[in-house]
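User: As part of a screening pipeline, I want to sanity-check one entry by hand. Below is the sequence and the SMILES for pyridoxal-5'-phosphate. Please return the complex as structure tokens so I can compare it with the automated output.
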Amino acid sequence: MNNSTSTLEIEVAPTTRDAMLGVYRPPELRFVAGEGSSLISEDGRAFLDFTSGIGVNALGFGSPVIRAAIEAALDTGLIHTSNLFRTAPAEALASRLIELSFPGKVFFCNSGAEAGEASLKFARRAARAWLGDSATEEAKAAKHQIVAFKDGFHGRLHGTLAITDRPAYQAPFAPLMPGAVVVDLDDSDAIRAAVSAERTAAIIVEPILGEGGVRPVSAAKLMELRALCDEVGAVLIFDEVQCGIGRTGEVFAWQESSVLPDLLALAKPIGGGLPMGAVILADRVAETIQPGDHATTFGGGPLVASVALAVLETVAQPDFLAEVRRKGALIEAGLIDIASRHESVLAYRGRGLMWGLELSVPVADLTAAAFEAGVLLVGAGPGVLRLLPPLTVTDQEIERVLGLIDELLS
Ligand SMILES: *Cc1c(COP(=O)(O)O)cnc(C)c1O
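Assistant: Here is the complex for your manual check:
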């Protein structure tokens, strides 16, 4: 065992998982604390966490930035007010998101799927409004389709699941949202055939497919989608729930391509571990949205917005982003080396601190063996091992995980 032992002494009452709904299959061991890049188990072992809570814990565990933001927010006594009333943290966060992205407005919600659902509503609203005042009700109703891509992942609610290309996840719950069209991202003819001025309301894509195997989408492909949307009056949605907020070494993944979306969906890391999602709407979409078109009780509450602002200010520092890119290059170099020496490595892909290693051996065996060695890894589909460390990961931690992968493949 490679595990270091934590200095934390934490007493945890015995509990059972019997009352927990069986939709997940976590290992037996319970985690009771976290420090830096590591989770601490109830038996006092430290596990180096290269899942970062599925890309959520960008600043690692026990972050002083997050603690200070929570304490300052608690000092006001305001955790929640609802959106019946104005509060400062949400407004400050929205302004900062706009400064860092593109001119527009922000809608806050509580998760990635909610950001996706809101995006779908905003997209249909905008695409229909863009038809103009002379459009018939029939023409507006027809313009409803959402074009999404094979292996894309957008969430587990009725709209987002309909555009998530996982028949096994979908089938038990059909019928889902009508109007979902899933095509192959590499097949430009199929994409063109799927899109029309009469029917298409939006195209949605992850600039780096996360769950679908960590696949960066080329700038040329994003440009192609942008041009198609412009041609048919459809909304271009980028789902950056996983690849956004510093993960790629830019604040937003699309910035590398400089292709602008009309809607940008954010979640996972934005709230520093508190539940938050957000949609940034370009002005031309935002101006089609009416009061009452969408709402949420919790979205953008003062506590979570204060924490999100602290996370964003930290991550958006040029020095912080440069470190993400530098450490990303370290991982890339390690993966090149591993790929050159192991036939079981079919490909490696990624950017910044988001990497996938496509393997000819079952990834579940590898993640299980890594767990035994004190390293937490997660797959991205059955054949891709995913590296998603906290953005604050150290060089030594990267070396240790690369060394372990090398060893496990041998
Ligand atoms: C995780 C994820 C979602 C769903 O987010 P939840 O918070 O789990 O609802 C949506 N899109 C992408 C790209 C994701 O990675």
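Points to compare against the pipeline: The first strand starts at residue 31 and ends at 35. The chain has 14 helices and 17 strands.
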